[in-house]
Amino acid sequence: MRIGQLLGTGRSADVYAIDDAWVLRRYRDSSDATPELAVLSYLSACGYPVPRLGPSPATATPSDMVLQRLTGPTMLKSLLSGALSYDEGAAILASLLTDLHTIPARLSLDPEDRILHLDLHPDNVMLTADGPVVIDWRTAAEGPPALDRAMSSLILAQVAVDPASPAATGARSLLAALLPRLDAQGGVPAPHLDRARHRRSADSNLSPREVALIDEAAALIGELSG
Ligand SMILES: Nc1ncnc2c1ncn2[C@@H]1O[C@H](COP(=O)(O)OP(=O)(O)O)[C@@H](O)[C@H]1O
Ligand SMILES: [Mg+2]
After folding, report:
1. Is the dihedral of CA 68, 28, 165, 197 positive or negative?
2. 57: pLDDT strictly greater than 80
3. What pLDDT score was predicted for residue 205?
4. pLDDT above 90 for 58
5. How many Å lie between the centroid of ligand 2 and the Cα of residue 106?
6. Which is it for strands 131-134 and 125-128: parallel, antiparallel or unpaired?
7. Ligand 1 within 6 A of 36 CB?
8. Top-level CATH class of 75-225?
């Protein structure tokens, strides 16, 4: 397999072009991507917008995944450039969460449980000609949909309360537009926001400075929820 140009990079993975159809997504810390393959394959079969799984080359390691190459900006990029309004972005995020939570869980026997992304934010949505596609399923789990809504809200709120972030004002506008839309799905109940706070506090990808903003972020969600 010939690895081409670096197309994108996030907190944990690097994504390289293989050819026009496929990319190689590789965890920098050699994490095992195998559990994500089953989730992606199931969600694809359910018609949810995720990158298709590609043929894995013999040389691939467990931290490699071959995925459909998506063309288009991330939602974050579109929001920052002004190509997408905060209201449009909030509508897309809300409907991606709603649609995901209509799909039955794959493993859980609790009929209320659903597949949760738990990191669904504008940098994990790519806006393609065929519509928005959700990437980066590392944190996927099964559980109550309200926890997913709480995680997405808390991630935005943490950026909104970060005085050092150039995206703070935008994140606040997006959160303010998102929360009323999430209300229609059951909103962000306090116990789920508490669980989300604990999860974020335990996230080793966050700096101590980011962790210190979690309480203020949760308070902002309360404030904007009225
Ligand atoms: N299937 C794909 N096709 C094209 N680019 C992609 C694809 N998946 C990810 N990317 C690019 O790589 C970046 C990082 O990918 P992501 O899966 O979110 O990694 P991380 O876990 O490090 O955040 C994305 O923001 C996007 O620019
Ligand atoms: Mg990502």
Report:
1. positive
2. no
3. 87
4. no
5. 23
6. antiparallel
7. no
8. alpha beta
